[in-house]
Specification:
Elements (H helix, E strand, L loop, with lengths): L1 E10 L2 E7 L3 E7 L5 H13 L17 E10 L2 E12 L2 E4 L5 E4 L2 E5 L2 H12 L3 H8 E2 L6 H4 L2 H12 L2 H26 L1 H4 L1 H108 L5 H41 L12 H97 L3 H98 L8 E4 L5 E4 L5 E3 L5 H24 L5 E5 L11 H10 L6 E6 L2 H5 L3 E5 L5
Helix pairs in contact: 3-12, 6-11, 8-10, 8-11, 9-10, 11-12, 12-13
C-alpha cells in the first residue's frame, strides 16, 4: 500500500490541509505543535476508524462540530480513496457514517456501514489495525525497543507473533485428554464383560438352543390348536343351529298361545256381533212400524181434506187466504157505510138541513129521506152479518187446513228422519253381517294355522340341544387347554428372548468396549505422539523462522550499509538475539555496537521482522513503513541522526517510508520533504 494524498478538515490543528506523499523516503518535518503527529493520527483514523484512546476528542478540532479525513492510496496497481468523518452529537464525538465512502478509481465499493467498509478495506490491503500498529507504524522510541528487551522476553514476544505459543498451548491442552483416555483404557481392561466375553457367548448359544426347542413345541401345539378350534367351531355351529331351531320352536309356542288367545277372543267377538245384529234387527222393525204409522196418519189427513199431497193443501190455504182478505175488506166497507148512514140520520133528526148540500128541506122529504137511509143502514148491517158468518166459517176451515198442513210438514220431517234411520240401521246391520263373515273367515284361518303350529312343535326334541351343548363345552375346554399351554410356552419364549436380548446387548457392548479399548489405545498413542511432536516442533520451527528472520535482516542491513562500504554478517540465536560479525569474524552483541551500527541493526531487524510477518500472514510484501520521531534521544554530535537518515535513504526493500520528525538533519536526506508550519489565525 502506497499513500498518495491525505486531506484533513478540522482535525486537531489542521483546518483544511492537504498532504501529498511519493514513493521512497518522505519526511514530514516541522516544529513542536504544528500538527505533524496529527497527520499520522489522521491516517490511523481514516484507515481503521477506531480511536486510539477512549474517544475521538484528540482528533476533532476544538469548537468545531464536524471534521473529515480523506486518504488516497495505491495497492496492486489500483487507486483507492477512503473518506471518514466525525461529528459532535449529544456532548460526544462519533463517526458520521453518512460521509463514509470507499472508492476504487471512480467506482464506489462500500459506504454508510462501518463493518462493510472495514471488511472491504482489509480484503484490499491485507492487514488489520494490530498489524499496522506493530509493523507499519513505529512510534516514538520503539525503533530500538526490540534490541533493548531481555532475551527471554524477546523470545516470548516473537514466539507469540510467529504463532509458536499455540503449539505449547496445544501440548498443555492435550495432557488432560491423554490422562482421560488412559483412564478409559484402564477401566475397559478391567471391565468384567470385556474379560468374560467368551462366557457370555456360550450362554447365548445355550439360550438360543432352548429357544428353538420351545418354538418347535409351540408350532406343534398351534397345529393341534387349529384342529381343536375346527372341532369346537363345528360343535358350536351345530349347537347354534339347534339353538336357532329351539328359539324358533319357542317362538312357535308363543305364537300358538297368541293364536289360541286370538281364537277365543275372535269367537267371543263373533258372538257379540251376532247378538248385536239381532238387537239391531229388532230396532229396525220397530222403526219401520213407526214409519208406517206416520205414513198412515199423513194419508188420513190428506183424505180428510180430499187432497193428494201437501202442495194441494198449500194451494187451498192460499185461496182461503185470498177469500178471507176479500171478506174482511167488504166487511170494513160496509161498516164504514153504516157509520156514515147513522151519522146522516142523526143530522136529519136534529136539523131540517140536507146533509149533502146543507139546504133546508121539507119535513116530508126529511122523513122520506130518513126512512130510506134507515133501510139502507139495515140492509148494510144484514150484509155485514152474513159476511161475518161466512168469514167465521171460512176462518174455522182455514185454521183446520192450516193445522193439517203443519201436521203434514211435521209428519214429513219425521218420515224423512225415520226413513234415514231405517237406511242407517239397514246399513249398520249389513256392515255387522259383513264383519261377522270376515271374523268367521279369520276364525277358520287361525284354526288351520293353529293346527300346523301344533304339528311343527310336536316334531322338535329338546334332548338333542342338551347333548350338543355338552359336546360344545368339551371341545371348548380342549381348545382352551391347548391355548393355555401355548401361552405358557410363549411366555417362556419371551423370557428367553429377553434374556437373549440382554445377552446380545452385553455381548455387543462388550465387543464395542473391546473396539473402544483398541481405539482408546490408539488415541493414547496418538496423543502421546502429538505431545512429543508439539514439544519437538517448536525448536524446529523456531530454527526455520530464525533463519528466515536472519536472511531478512541481512538483506535489509546490506542495503542500509551499501554506502558506508562496510560489510556485516548477522547471526540470530535461539532467543532471536541479533549479533553482528565483522570481516575478521569477531562477534558483537547489540549492546557493544556503535550508535550508527546499533541504528542500522535496529532498523534492519524491525523491517526484516515486519517483512517476514507480513509475508507469513498476508502473503504480501511490506511496502509502507511509518517512523514517528525516530530521532528521539539521538544527537548530532555522534552523527547518529545522520547515520539514521542515510540508513533510511538506502532502505530500498520498502517502497514508501514516511517519517515524522522535528530534525532538519533527517529531513535533508529525504527524497520528499514535507514542511508543516502553523499559520496565524
Amino acid at each position: 500500500m502506497i499513500i498518495r494524498k491525505l486531506t484533513l478538515k478540522n482535525i486537531r490543528s489542521h483546518m483544511d490541509s492537504v498532504v501529498e506523499f511519493e514513493e521512497g523516503f518522505n519526511c514530514v518535518v516541522g516544529g513542536v505543535g504544528v500538527g505533524k503527529t496529527s497527520i499520522l493520527l489522521s491516517l490511523h483514523f481514516v484507515l481503521f476508524g477506531e480511536p486510539l484512546h477512549r474517544s475521538y476528542e484528540y482528533l476533532l478540532r476544538e469548537n468545531k462540530n464536524r471534521g473529515q479525513v480523506t486518504v488516497e492510496f495505491e495497492h496492486g496497481g489500483k487507486t483507492y480513496r477512503l473518506t471518514r468523518a466525525l461529528k459532535r452529537e449529544r456532548n460526544r464525538i462519533v463517526q458520521d457514517t453518512n460521509e463514509l465512502r470507499l472508492w476504487e478509481n471512480e467506482k464506489i465499493l462500500a459506504w454508510g456501514k462501518l463493518a462493510a467498509v472495514q471488511e472491504q478495506l482489509q480484503s484490499i490491503i491485507g492487514m488489520d489495525k494490530k498489524m499496522f500498529e506493530e509493523f507499519v507504524w513505529i512510534q516514538q522510541e520503539k525503533l530500538k525497543e526490540i534490541l533493548n528487551m531481555t532475551p527471554s522476553e524477546r523470545q516470548r514476544i516473537l514466539d507469540e507473533l510467529f504463532g509458536f505459543s499455540s503449539f505449547q498451548k496445544a501440548w498443555e491442552r492435550l495432557l488432560p485428554y491423554q490422562r482421560h483416555y488412559q483412564a478409559i483404557k484402564d477401566t475397559l481392561e478391567r471391565d468384567p464383560d470385556v474379560v468374560g466375553i467368551n462366557d457370555l457367548k456360550n450362554q447365548y448359544e445355550e439360550l438360543a438352543s432352548d429357544l428353538i426347542k420351545l418354538q418347535v413345541e409351540v408350532e406343534t401345539l398351534q397345529l393341534e390348536a387349529e384342529e381343536a378350534e375346527k372341532a369346537f367351531k363345528e360343535a358350536e355351529e351345530k349347537l347354534r343351529s339347534l339353538e336357532t331351531l329351539e328359539k324358533r320352536i319357542n317362538e312357535l309356542k308363543e305364537e300358538k298361545s297368541s293364536i289360541s288367545a286370538r281364537l277365543n277372543e275372535n269367537q267371543g267377538y263373533i258372538d257379540n256381533l251376532k247378538t248385536l245384529v239381532t238387537k239391531k234387527e229388532k230396532e229396525l222393525n220397530r222403526v219401520r212400524e213407526f214409519l208406517e204409522q206416520l205414513k198412515t196418519e199423513k194419508q188420513k189427513i190428506l183424505t180428510q181434506f180430499s187432497k193428494k199431497n201437501l202442495s194441494e193443501i198449500q194451494t187451498a190455504i192460499e185461496k182461503m187466504d185470498v177469500k178471507l182478505t176479500e171478506l174482511r175488506n167488504k166487511t170494513a166497507e160496509l161498516r164504514t157505510n153504516v157509520e156514515k148512514l147513522e151519522e146522516t140520520v142523526l143530522i136529519l133528526e136534529g136539523e131540517s138541513v140536507c146533509p149533502t148540500c146543507q139546504r133546508e128541506i121539507e119535513p116530508s122529504y126529511k122523513e122520506k129521506l130518513t126512512s130510506r137511509l134507515q133501510f139502507e143502514k139495515i140492509k148494510a148491517e144484514q150484509e155485514m152479518i152474513r159476511l161475518k158468518v161466512e168469514m167465521e166459517g171460512l176462518e174455522t176451515e182455514y185454521k183446520e187446513i192450516l193445522n193439517a198442513k203443519n201436521r203434514i210438514e211435521v209428519l214429513n220431517a219425521q218420515i224423512n228422519e225415520t226413513q234415514k234411520s231405517v237406511r242407517e240401521k239397514e246399513e249398520e246391520i249389513t256392515n255387522l253381517n259383513k264383519e261377522v263373515s270376515e271374523r268367521e273367515k279369520l276364525q277358520k284361518d287361525l284354526t288351520v294355522k293353529f293346527g300346523k303350529i301344533e304339528e311343527e312343535i310336536s316334531k322338535f326334541k329338546i334332548e338333542g340341544v342338551e347333548k350338543a351343548r355338552k359336546i360344545r363345552e368339551e371341545k371348548l375346554l380342549t381348545y382352551r387347554k391347548i391355548l393355555d399351554t401355548i401361552d405358557h410356552y410363549k411366555k417362556l419364549i419371551e423370557e428367553k428372548n429377553t434374556s437373549l436380548t440382554l445377552l446380545e446387548k452385553r455381548i455387543s457392548n462388550a465387543e464395542q468396549k473391546v473396539i473402544q479399548k483398541d481405539t482408546v489405545e490408539s488415541i493414547v498413542k496418538i496423543i502421546g505422539g502429538l505431545r512429543i511432536a508439539y514439544k519437538e516442533i517448536i525448536p524446529r520451527l523456531r530454527k526455520t523462522y530464525i533463519e528466515g528472520l536472519r536472511e531478512a535482516i541481512q538483506s535489509v542491513l546490506d542495503s542500509l550499509t551499501v554506502e558506508a562500504e562496510k560489510s556485516f554478517y548477522v547471526e540470530v540465536d535461539e532467543e532471536y538475539t541479533p549479533n553482528l560479525v565483522g570481516d575478521t569474524g569477531f562477534k558483537r552483541e547489540a549492546g557493544f555496537l556503535s550508535g550508527g551500527e546499533r541504528t542500522w541493526l535496529a532498523l534492519a531487524y524491525r523491517v526484516g521482522l515486519g517483512q517476514l510477518i507480513m509475508e507469513a500472514k498476508t502473503g504480501q510484501n511490506l511496502e509502507l513503513l511509518i517512523l514517528d520521531e525516530p530521532t528521539e534521544a539521538l544527537g548530532t554530535e555522534d552523527k547518529s541522526i545522520e547515520t539514521l537518515a542515510s540508513a533510511i535513504s538506502n532502505l530500498k526493500a520498502v517502497r514508501q517510508i514516511i517519517t515524522v520528525t522535528h530534525s532538519e538533519e533527517l529531513a535533508k536526506e529525504a527524497s520528499t520533504r514535507i514542511l508543516v508550519v502553523k499559520k496565524e489565525g
